[in-house]
Design goal:
By secondary structure, this protein is α+β, with helices and mostly antiparallel strands. 30% of the residues lie in helices and 19% in strands. A five-stranded mixed β-sheet has the order 13-12-16-18-17, with helices on one face. Strands 6, 7, 10 and 15 form a four-stranded mixed β-sheet that branches. The longest helix has 20 residues. Bound molecules: zinc ion.
């Protein structure tokens, strides 16, 4: 007897286990692969965590995906789990461009049914999500294009903020589609589905990648087996709240309308910025040393140093501050390493202030009280003082407020105003000292208050 159709595997269901950070970055860096940190034939509970009980204590976890037949893995720990027959999905994997090749006299719906049937035949019917073929036939004629809306709670403004530029995935078994949220937080998937699907968010973008800890991709698993659009409002508490506000800060910085350069641009030579989120208390930092190549250079802690939960404005402000260091480092690595701490930190303070002022009112901006800080507090050690390096200099260059006039001799004298944050950034190029930064500002720009630059900078050069 002759088979009506010649059914052969078109794809492989596979998994990879990176053995070190080089292999991890190799896998994450391959834009032709859509990697999942959990099995694709496993029923997930909603949230951020899938724990593989066989890998407890291991830094790395298996990464699952689908590849075309004939694929060669770049790393050695690689397993083929299943052969797949996915005729509706013949991809040009090399160019990463998807094209649908469907036989002209067979509808998409029938291919869907056949695919689902083939999952049963290949042994997937033993999986948690068993497909009932009669149900499948009923649903097959109702293809739909899923949409998701993602917002995060801001517990300082008491609003839900739509998140823009978030990668949302809809997946049913080994087929998936993606969408990126727009200004209203809404993403439309790149293709349609015939029935149920699983929703997820991957907190990864072209130029930055948010990590759970040092090596794990940050994600959120939404409803499993959903038959409707997804509206996610991320509330306070937990990692997703932190991821959401980090994402918002990064998105606003990379897409800023202030004339500031992008802090970092991903290209062949440079991997994207990794932002590690630690679910504990600590002081956030940008580490530009060895971590650069092998791990996450920016670390953000979920809790304040005193152990209390970090509010949305603090996550936002801290993320911008650390990314400002990345942007400074990106200008000139050598200058950044050699620069005076007062230049490095004053710049980051100023950038964080400007972005925070775009989304928060004056009283809500973390450290928005810079104008009232006295010299003894500036020069005192952490946590009560500013360690003689976190200054209001950049804010003073922009505003037209002189704190000395209001608060007296213990405050900086500030008769400078009207510089833009973009001019201040540009003048910092090649400036390792406060003096050079000051001179660059005077030389590059005409400003009616420029004769007072010496006086302003002297507050911090001489600490009055
Ligand atoms: Zn800093």
């Amino acid at each position: 007897m002759k088979a009506a159709l010649n059914i052969e595997a078109t794809h492989l269901y596979v998994r990879f286990l990176p053995k070190d950070s080089t292999e991890l970055e190799m896998m994450f860096g391959d834009s032709t692969l859509t990697l999942f940190s959990h099995p694709l034939d496993y029923e997930l509970t909603e949230g951020e965590k899938y724990i593989d009980s066989t890998l407890i204590g291991n830094d790395f976890t298996w990464l699952y995906t689908r590849v075309p037949v004939g694929y060669t893995s770049p790393i050695s720990q690689y397993e083929v789990i299943e052969q797949l027959y996915l005729p509706t999905l013949i991809e040009s994997e090399i160019q990463g461009i998807k094209r649908q090749e469907v036989s002209s006299n067979i509808s998409n719906d029938w291919w869907d049914i056949l695919e689902n049937k083939s999952f049963e035949l290949t042994g997937n019917s033993n999986s948690a999500q068993k497909i009932n073929s009669s149900q499948t036939i009923q649903k097959a004629s109702n293809r739909w294009t899923p949409k998701a809306t993602i917002r995060v709670q801001d517990n300082v403004t008491n609003t839900y903020v739509p998140l823009q530029g978030v990668e949302v995935r809809a997946r049913w078994w080994f087929n998936w589609e993606k969408g990126f949220t727009d200004v209203n937080g809404k993403a439309t998937m790149s293709g349609s589905f015939s029935g149920k699907l699983n929703w997820s968010i991957v907190w990864d973008s072209h130029d930055w990648d948010i990590r759970s800890g040092f090596y794990g991709q940050a994600y959120y698993n939404g409803p499993d087996g959903s038959k409707s659009d997804w509206n996610l409002d991320i509330g306070i508490g937990g990692k997703s709240f932190v991821y959401g506000h980090i994402h918002r800060a990064c998105y606003n910085y990379w897409n800023n309308n202030l004339g500031l350069k992008k802090p970092f641009i991903d290209n062949f030579w440079k991997q994207k910025i990794k932002i590690a989120v630690y679910g504990k208390a600590g002081r956030s930092y940008f580490g530009s040393g060895w971590r650069w190549l092998f791990g996450a250079p920016v670390a953000i802690y979920e809790l304040e140093e005193n152990g209390s939960p970090r509010n949305s404005n603090r996550i936002f402000n801290t993320t911008i501050h650390e990314i400002a260091h990345v942007s400074h480092w990106e200008m000139d690595h050598s200058d950044f390493y050699k620069a005076d701490d007062r230049v490095v930190e004053s710049y980051a303070v100023g950038i964080a202030y400007v972005f925070s002022a775009q989304v928060y009112s004056a009283g809500q901006i973390p450290h928005g009280d810079f104008q009232s800080i006295s010299f003894d507090v500036y020069t005192a050690p952490s946590p009560d003082g500013y360690e003689s390096k976190y200054t209001a200099l950049v804010i003073d260059l922009m505003d037209n407020y002189n704190q000395r006039a209001d608060w007296g001799i213990n405050r900086p004298v500030d008769n400078v105003s009207g510089y833009t944050i973009a001019q201040i950034e540009n003048a910092m190029k090649g400036a390792k000292t406060l003096e050079k930064w000051r001179d660059n500002l005077r030389d590059k720009y005409d400003n009616p208050t420029e004769n007072n630059l010496d006086e302003l900078f002297n507050n911090y050069i001489n600490w009055r």
